[in-house]
Amino acid sequence: MKDAASLCTIARQRMAALSAIRSFFAVRGYIEIEAPLLLRSPDSDPSLTPLEVTLHCPGEPDRRAACLTSPEYSMKKLLGAGMDKIFYLGKVFRDEEVWNATHATEFTMVEWYEGGMEYLAGMDQTEELVHAVAEALGVKDHPLLRPWRRVKIKEMFERHVGIVDVGRLSLRELHDAAHTLGIHTTEDDSWSDVFYRMYVSRIENTLPEDEVLVLYEYPTPQAALAAPTLDGYYAERFEVFCGRLELCNAFTELTDAVVQRARFERERQERERAGKSVFPIDEELLALLPSLRQPTFGNGLGVDRLLMALLKKPRLDDVHVLPHTDIFPA
User: Fold this and answer.
1) For 140-150, how does the pLDDT look when each residue is reduced to its tens digit (9 = 90+)?
2) Model-level pTM greater than 0.90?
3) Residue 131 contacts residue 139 (beta carbons within 8 Å)
């Protein structure tokens, strides 16, 4: 365990950051909500593995459940029920994460939604939030405090992979392009699988270490919960990277329940093909989705990673008072 002085420093820094986040949203009229940590229908994103649990209630059948991977479904239900500006600040859990400097099973997330806002305005708001946290921590000189460069993901593919308009390629065309580039794929790989292999192979290592980059408008298979752009091939989604560290994942939210159901079904098939657990589709979410204002902006930002970046710490453990690697040593 760290010494007492270090523990106090980390605890004070976390308290300052969490207080700054709550103040940022409170003065803008947001309401903090507490999303349930145990869910019947967790996020169905094939890249996520929920932490599964069984609930035992005496006299009743056992219930299958999963720990929260993201508060998104719960928060969208509240938006559909009439709330308009809400945020969640708390823990989320993801199973099958590699425990390393930037990944852990349990981490702190701030997620927020605002009706009437779209993703481009959301980029500005996210930048303002990061500035507010930096000020609370006394950080004055940092790449996150300089203007953020915004680049469409299709431009990154044109520049570094040599593929024009990647979002318009069929699965077969994407497989063929990967083969030409010498990037290994299998016939079972989905469109997103091949896209991600290309991204990791040719783009990830090009992200500048001393600059903040906003990558935006991902192909629709990479954005199951986001509204499509006008051409229908891309989605109004962005991610913010400080160097190679991903900080957040944001959308203009999809509100079409028919399209959302089709995307959920596609994710269900991808999960089955990958041998992952499949949970029931959240019918209550689909019923309330059309009631969301258009547009509605949502963003999930990793608080621990933001602290790492602003304080220039190399590991998540450096910003935790009681890191999970101490609780569960190898």
Assistant:
1) 999 999 999 99
2) yes
3) no
